[in-house]
Amino acid sequence: MQRRVGDPVAGGFVANLAKPGGNATGFSSIEYAVSEKWPELLKQIAPKLARVAVLRDPEQISGGGQLGALQAVAQVLRVELFPIDVREPQEMKDAIVAFARQPNGGLISTTSALAQIDRGAIIDLATQLKLPAMYPYRFYIPEGGLISYGPDVVLQYRLAAEYVDRILRGAKPGDLPVQQPTNYLLVVNLKAANSIGLQVPESVLDSATAIAALARRNPNAARLLEHLAASHTLAEDAGKIAARATAKTLVLNHLVPSDDPTLTDTDWIAAARAHYAGQIVVARDLMEMAVA
Q1: Domain map of the chain by residue range?
Q2: Which of its termini does the chain have fewer beta carbons within 10 Å around, N or C?
Q3: What topology does CATH give the domain 2-232?
Q4: For the chain, percent helix, then strand, then coil, each to nearest 5?
């Protein structure tokens, strides 16, 4: 059972995604098309962006596909890409510093495992050099990252647990399709944006998750984001879980943010409804419900 494999077919783990065959299945970590959103979002935040350093591992199986997707959209955006190898940390840092000497630059950190390991240093360096930086996962944000767009990793682990349960109950791994991410999260760190002198446009903020919306109004945004990401479930995810459990009714409670007038019951229901067709109830304090 594979979790968060970049390209399981290219890596030779499975024959194809729909019918893996053999004794393996699992979850891929990203679709290459998602990479195209990274420079688009970065340019929305930094309109003068003309050059982007791309942190990547040339030996990573999915690295070529991600770079190819980035190159395709970079031509449309008229942005020049500068690939930087992450395998040698000091050489990577020196290359970023040299890149930042020219104006109108930005940085994209791909899904490289090596970049994830060294993410603290990368985030600190991007902030120090005032480079607008895009990251592939939301766990970069509590550590000071500017913006992230990528799959909901927590949801993938929950779904992986379901696959393990099915396999233990007798299902053959090769008969279970390899699943690609279906739920993507955009998270923006306004504190990080302010620190490098960026004004995040409303169009980007409106696309961010409710978690980020709450953090925008909280002075302790980084710690709040870390807590919410670890201990709360998105309404979309609740809908997916209810659908897989074939529940007749889904009750949404402990809603966060609860004091945002722009978020109504209709919004919470619509988020869950995208994945669940049963009855949805938005709970309130002291509400009583009959249990059949």
Answers
A1: 2-232, 236-282
A2: C
A3: Rossmann fold (3.40.50)
A4: 45, 15, 40
